[in-house]
Design brief:
It contains eight helices and six strands, in the order βαβαβααβαβαβαα. By secondary structure, it is an alpha/beta fold. The chain has a single domain, classed as 3-Layer(aba) Sandwich (Rossmann fold). The radius of gyration is 16 Å and the shape is globular. The chain starts with a strand and ends with a helix.
Amino acid sequence: MGQIIDFSQLNLLSSTLHKNKKRIVLATGVYDLLHPGHQLFLQKAKRLGDILFVGLESDARVKQLKGPGRPVEDLQTRLQKVTKHTVADYVFSLPTTFDKPRVREALITTIKPNFLAVSDHTPFQKQKQVILKKYGGTMQIVAKQIPGFSTTAQISSKQRIPLLDKGEEISKIALGSKD
């Protein structure tokens, strides 16, 4: 199980991890109504390195990105679920101003991830690649959007993909295992 940290802790924590030769992976997103698609994405991201940082969009940003009625779950609930039900090592809230290029750059240059894990539909990929190149980081597309596993699709169809409380069972579902 991961740990929720404050944004202000990122600099010291990531510096310490880099000094200890740990490969850091950064992933960001909404993670509203956590589902197996989120699970799979974070599992693949974690495989890129030793430590996985996951930044979650603020409630205000989610509303801006996704529209009225979103997020379904507030930030504290989303932070708790990602911490408890994923392979994330450190989970934190992104600033409300994360839509600003300078804020995205500040996050990336603070953590200096070896890998920035993104999906095929992640916005601002070119900008992020430029920032990563400054210190040798790499952007890696770890997953394509999986049909039927989007939160928006769940809400639209009024069908919810149940979140299991056991991480092992979630992993099997997300990875398609029949065991």
